[in-house]
Amino acid sequence: MRLPLGTAHEHPLCARGQRRWAIVVPIIFLEFLVLSMSRTIIPELIDDQYGESSYVVYGSADGARGLLAFLATPAVGALSDELGRKWLFLVTVVGSSSPIIVLAFSSRLDAHLCVWALSGLFAATFPLAFAYISDHVPAPSLVQAYGITLTLTLTLTLSLTLTTTLT
After folding, report:
1. High-pLDDT (> 70) share of the chain, %
2. Which domain, by its residues, includes 49?
3. In whole angstroms, what is the distance from residue 8 CA to residue 26 CA?
4. Among 13, 20, 24, 71, which residue's CB has the most CB atoms within a 10 Å radius?
């Protein structure tokens, strides 16, 4: 049986030279891991320190992070078109991990929350990953590459989060 031209079978994802897109799997995994692990620990610490105003404090930091991500992501995308995506992956993962890094060296939650809000400037890992995949995968195979990437990273992250939450 002959497949019609333009199908995904013409461009298999595992063909030689087409595996370069797979580098985004560990990058997105790190991003998911940092975000999910901090979401299981930090709210309890904030509640202990800020008491009744903990929702306002955490919500304000999260809202500022979201606003900064909304404003900065297009600029990071345009910058990645000029400079390339690989180095900006490193910048976005380190920038997104910076609140946890600050908390590792300081026990001050207000410093963590300030850095958490500012980390929105680096919250462009997912758009960079999808752009990197679209740069290296032929159009008929894009959906497969996106699906594989998201399935692997979500599965790994959810299993780690559930393990730490249940133990």
Report:
1. 83
2. 22-166
3. 24
4. 24
